[in-house]
């Protein structure tokens, strides 16, 4: 476009419509079937035979080529080029005749001009075949989705310099099943390749083909460690700090997973503390409102549990459940030194259950599911009738419902009747809400331990402190988690050598194992504190890849996905 604007006016039709330097002339322009058809003649009288190179001026005949071109004035454009065919004057040449070629305008045999191919290709790199075809038909460059996909495949490979600093991370092909690998140039912040798996062999091969990488950031998976070490032995390896914090969070979660009863106890203590604190009230929606900081958590958390809150007045079973009895039997034998296999045989239980009980400190009692909370629904008509009759003593109503077979909680009755009270149906007489205890997952507990105090709300601080008092070894683990987090976030290189021996002597086995695994990766962890490089940009490009993958629906073959992630090759 810039080249056209520089030309002096008035321009000829040829200058306006044809690429600069094309040795052609527009003879006629007419609209046919809503297309602008340009009849074009060649301006040359001599041409070289493309097979033998001999020049000729003897024209045998003409034929027409009809490639599509970029649009003009809202019309799709078709060229009708009158192509001269020359006799080859070289008697030794295998070809008697040859057609003139127009290398600046259209490739031999192509049905689109070069500049149209370029524009359609650029659109194809930015959108899926279907969406791209729809867009291009709006701007008068119609093309089929299949052709667009072919254009992406036929685009040349981008020529990329081998990066000095490389970030490696995986991406899920299908969530949690198979993975690919993303390689990003961290200095230029652009992807340099996408691999179809995350094996050590693929990474090793890539690094062998691209010598000269000096620094590599990666997660701590064994595959990448092995691949990088084998493929680029001299490169400095840097553990990604985000992944290290994630490792810590997973360690804490494993510790809390073992102590479900302690989690409930801590949640209860925290709720009681909040209830007695005059300035604060606990919202009925419980944890959801109590932990607003969760969304911006510095530690990654899994999908938040969406359990209904636990009611304070819960009908406790008078006798232990069958599961609790089994659990006690397993734990007794474990304490006596039995093997898991012997317990499986003796108690006729599944190996999976025995293995799970083996690692639990508390019995596997479940929290109330949604059934018991909603069960008040079937008693609502009766309840409402009593309420309107004037019986608004909730304890009385609760007792009456229990006589009718209601197995749910007092809190449910309280909530149901509270709606009528606030609706103004009938005034409230007793309005003391029962104490609500939000459920607390191991993942949330881990988050509370790894988050800085300054980032926690009052309720969250209560909950965290309750965990520290209630759970085994939690005080020590909390201090270790906090100092680890500070060390990683603030890149305190000198702190590592103090932290590791402390953590290795921790009374909690999960933390001990975590420290030992860090010790084995000592050089890589140390580098994480020495270098500023991180996998943040890789994460960004993985997100972009996921977006492209979604755009492509079922057509996301790996070669196509890779091409689109690497992008339209920039002219050099
Ligand atoms: Zn020839």
Question: What would your notes on this structure say?
Answer:
- Among the domains are: 110 residues, no CATH class; 109 residues, Ribonuclease H-like superfamily/Ribonuclease H (Nucleotidyltransferase, domain 5, 2-Layer Sandwich).
- It is built from 25 helices and 13 strands.
- The chain is of the alpha+beta class and 572 residues long.
- The longest helix has 17 residues.
- It is elongated, with a radius of gyration of 36 Å.
- The strands form three sheets. Strands 1, 2, 5, 6, 7 and 8 form a six-stranded mixed beta sheet that branches. Strands 11-10-9-12-13 form a five-stranded mixed beta sheet, sandwiched between helices. A two-stranded antiparallel ribbon has the order 3-4.
- The site of zinc ion has 8 residues, from loops.
User: How much is the average pLDDT?
Assistant: 82
* Assembly form of the protein: single chain
C-alpha termini separation: 19 Å
The number of helical elements comes to: 25
The low-pLDDT segments are 278-317, 367-374, 427-431
- The count of strands amounts to 13
Q: Main beta sheet, described?
A: 6 strands, mixed
| Shape assignment | elongated
Main structural class = alpha+beta
Topology:
Layout: H1 2-6, H2 13-17, E1 24-32, E2 35-42, E3 47-48, E4 55-56, E5 59-65, E6 68-72, E7 75-87, E8 97-99, H3 114-126, H4 129-138, H5 145-154, E9 165-174, E10 178-185, E11 190-195, H6 200-209, E12 215-218, H7 222-231, E13 236-239, H8 241-257, H9 260-276, H10 287-290, H11 322-335, H12 340-347, H13 351-359, H14 370-374, H15 380-389, H16 394-403, H17 410-422, H18 442-450, H19 458-470, H20 474-489, H21 496-504, H22 509-520, H23 522-530, H24 536-551, H25 558-566
Parallel strand pairs: 2-7, 9-12, 12-13
Antiparallel strand pairs: 1-2, 3-4, 5-7, 6-7, 7-8, 9-10, 10-11
């Amino acid at each position: 476009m810039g080249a056209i604007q520089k030309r002096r006016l008035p321009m000829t039709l040829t200058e306006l419509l044809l690429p600069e330097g094309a040795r052609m002339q527009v003879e006629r322009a007419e609209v046919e079937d809503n297309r602008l058809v340009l009849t074009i003649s060649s301006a040359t009288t001599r041409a070289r035979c493309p097979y033998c190179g001999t020049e000729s001026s003897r024209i045998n005949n003409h034929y027409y080529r009809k490639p599509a071109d970029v649009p003009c004035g809202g019309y799709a454009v078709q060229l009708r080029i009158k192509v001269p065919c020359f006799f080859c004057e070289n008697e030794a040449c295998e070809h008697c005749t040859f057609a003139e070629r127009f290398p600046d305008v259209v490739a031999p045999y192509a049905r689109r001009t070069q500049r149209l191919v370029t524009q359609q290709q650029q659109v194809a790199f930015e959108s899926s075949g279907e969406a791209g075809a729809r867009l291009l038909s709006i701007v008068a460059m119609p093309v089929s989705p299949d052709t667009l996909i072919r254009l992406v495949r036929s685009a040349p490979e981008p020529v990329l310099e081998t990066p000095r600093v490389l970030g490696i991370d995986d991406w899920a092909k299908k969530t949690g099943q198979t993975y690919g690998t993303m390689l990003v140039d961290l200095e230029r912040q652009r992807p340099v390749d996408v691999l179809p798996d995350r094996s050590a062999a693929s990474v090793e091969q890539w690094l062998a083909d691209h010598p000269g990488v000096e620094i590599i950031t990666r997660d701590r998976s064994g595959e990448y460690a092995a691949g990088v070490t084998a493929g680029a032995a001299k490169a400095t390896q840097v553990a990604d700090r985000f992944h290290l914090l994630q490792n810590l969070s997973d360690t804490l979660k494993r510790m809390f997973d073992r102590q479900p009863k302690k989690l409930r106890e801590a949640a209860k203590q925290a709720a009681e503390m909040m209830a007695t604190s005059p300035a604060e009230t606990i919202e009925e929606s419980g944890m959801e409102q109590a932990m607003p900081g969760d969304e911006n958590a510095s530690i990654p958390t899994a999908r938040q549990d969406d359990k209904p809150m636990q009611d304070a007045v819960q009908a406790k079973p008078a006798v232990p459940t069958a599961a609790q009895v089994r659990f006690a039997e397993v734990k007794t034998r474990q304490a006596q030194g039995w093997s898991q296999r012997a317990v499986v045989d003796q108690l006729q239980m599944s190996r999976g259950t025995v293995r799970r009980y083996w690692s639990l400190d508390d019995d596997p009692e479940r929290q109330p599911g949604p059934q018991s909370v909603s069960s008040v629904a079937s008693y609502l008509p009766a309840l409402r009738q009593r309420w309107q009759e004037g019986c608004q003593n909730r304890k009385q109503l609760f007792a009456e419902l229990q006589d009718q077979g209601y197995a749910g909680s007092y809190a449910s009755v309280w909530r149901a009747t509270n709606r009528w009270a606030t609706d103004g149906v009938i005034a409230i007489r007793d309005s003391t809400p029962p104490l609500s205890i939000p459920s607390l997952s191991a993942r949330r507990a881990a988050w509370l331990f790894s988050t800085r105090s300054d980032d926690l709300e009052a309720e969250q601080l209560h909950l965290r402190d309750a965990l520290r008092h209630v759970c085994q070894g939690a005080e020590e683990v909390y201090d270790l988690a906090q100092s680890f987090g500070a060390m990683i976030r603030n890149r305190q290189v000198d702190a590592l050598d103090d932290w590791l021996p402390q953590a290795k002597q921790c009374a909690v086995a999960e933390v001990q194992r975590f420290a030992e695994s860090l010790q084995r990766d000592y050089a890589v962890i140390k580098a994480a504190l020495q270098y500023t490089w991180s996998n943040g940009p890789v994460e960004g490009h993985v997100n972009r890849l996921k977006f492209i993958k979604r755009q492509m629906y079922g057509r996301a073959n790996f070669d196509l996905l890779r091409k689109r992630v690497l992008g339209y090759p920039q002219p050099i």
